[in-house]
Design brief:
Strand content: 25-35%
Largest sheet: 8 strands, mixed
Distance between the termini: 37 Å
Helix content: 10-25%
Shape: globular
CATH topology of the domain at 50-139 and 253-305: FAD/NAD(P)-binding domain
Low-confidence stretches: 1-26
CATH architecture of the domain at 50-139 and 253-305: 3-Layer(bba) Sandwich
């Protein structure tokens, strides 16, 4: 199976169908102001990758029922709600009744949506976390809806697994739609361009040292608006090849704040606490504990199936007039029009297996310079 052909794992979800539909294309989109002196933040997070896909299972340990819910790679935000719906029956199978208090450990995308899903099912929830947003790995995500980003390797993507993944992706997509149109804009649709120096039929090499990932996007092609290839006079970029797409974008700070506010409004409690060993779960008063620790499970549980994947994002000063995304295929560049700034993402050469959280400013500055060169014409 070929690896991803665009710039970040999962961005193949932007691939367009063979039957494009015509629609108006703006001839002069607002100019992005791409210069390194407009960099206002650089953030590093770790994607919790499992070759087998997310771990969603229960076990008895130290007198408690521990429900594991982690390992979503680069698809945490995208799959969060559907995955939480898969974890909910495991909570119910413990015999815990609505009104009983359960524990959720972890305050990232998976922890927050699991807590909200349990609340909506009638449970009281106490959320334990070492850190809360924005000091969690989920805060460093790009914010594109990419439910197949580093979610599983090709060898583990059986038909049964893929069908389960599709069900989670569809369920998540449906819940994300309920957040459209809110004042804070936690979820929004944005148009964008994929531009390329080479024909889109030319494959690109995979990322350094990474496994092969399956092609899953065709299973949910109906959830994405159909785009089209653009002629040279239909786009403003200097590249000979361009495509138009429309994609969901998460304004992550607003989304996190809204989830935390909703969690508190429905009686949720948030306790700051770090767990260093599984036996510490036995000290909690709750008999059902949902472990949503993401990459933290790698050390907490000594889980050998987990591989850290470093991800760095940078933000330029916000430009509200810029309402389109931009992907420069083959040049390691993704730009998203988020409300907290123009987000610029670029892969590092050795991100896979790397848990170094130190920002590499030169990496982000180089990406901004590539953007400036693309826009210079």
């Amino acid at each position: 199976m070929q690896r991803r052909h665009l710039l970040v794992a999962g961005s193949a979800t932007l691939a367009l169908p063979a039957y494009p539909v015509d629609f108006a294309v703006p001839r002069a989109p607002a100019a992005m102001r791409a210069s390194v002196d407009r960099l206002i933040d650089i953030t590093v997070g770790i994607r919790p990758f499992r070759a087998q896909g997310p771990r969603i299972e229960a076990e008895r340990r130290n007198g408690r029922t521990l429900i594991h819910h982690y390992g979503h790679g680069g698809s945490g935000w995208s799959l969060s709600w559907g995955s939480a719906q898969r974890a909910l029956p495991l909570i119910q199978a413990t015999g815990a009744r609505p009104g009983e208090r359960i524990a959720v450990v972890g305050c990232g995308a998976i922890g927050l949506t699991t807590a909200r899903t349990a609340q909506q099912a009638g449970y009281k929830v106490r959320l334990y976390a070492k850190d809360r947003p924005p000091r969690v790995h989920s805060s460093a995500a790009t914010g594109l809806w990419t439910p197949d980003s580093r979610i599983v390797t090709s060898e583990h993507a059986t038909e049964a697994w893929s069908a389960d993944w599709e069900a989670m992706a569809r369920a998540s997509f449906k819940v994300h739609q309920s957040y459209l149109g809110l004042p804070s804009g936690p979820v929004e649709w944005h148009d964008g361009y994929v531009v390329s120096d080479e024909d889109f039929d030319q494959p690109l090499p995979g990322h350094v040292g990474e496994p092969d990932y399956p092609e899953l996007s065709s299973r949910i092609a109906d959830l994405r608006p159909q785009g089209k290839a653009l002629a040279a006079d239909e786009h403003p970029f200097r590249t000979p090849h361009a495509r138009r797409f429309t994609q969901l974008v998460f304004n992550i700070p607003a989304y996190q704040r809204l989830l935390l506010d909703d969690f508190a409004r429905d009686g949720g409690e948030l306790v700051q606490r770090e767990f260093r060993a599984p036996r510490e779960f036995a000290r909690l008063p709750e008999r059902v504990i949902v472990n949503c620790t993401g990459d933290g499970a790698r050390k907490l549980l000594a889980d050998p199936t987990m591989t850290p994947v470093r991800g760095q994002t940078a933000r330029l000063i916000p430009q509200p007039e810029v309402d389109y995304a931009l992907i420069y295929r083959g040049h390691n560049l993704v730009v998203l029009p988020r409300r907290d700034g123009l987000l610029v993402a670029a892969m590092g050469e050795h991100d896979f297996g790397n848990d170094d959280l130190r920002p590499d400013r030169e990496q982000s500055e180089a990406a901004v310079r590539r953007l400036a060169a693309l826009l210079s014409a």
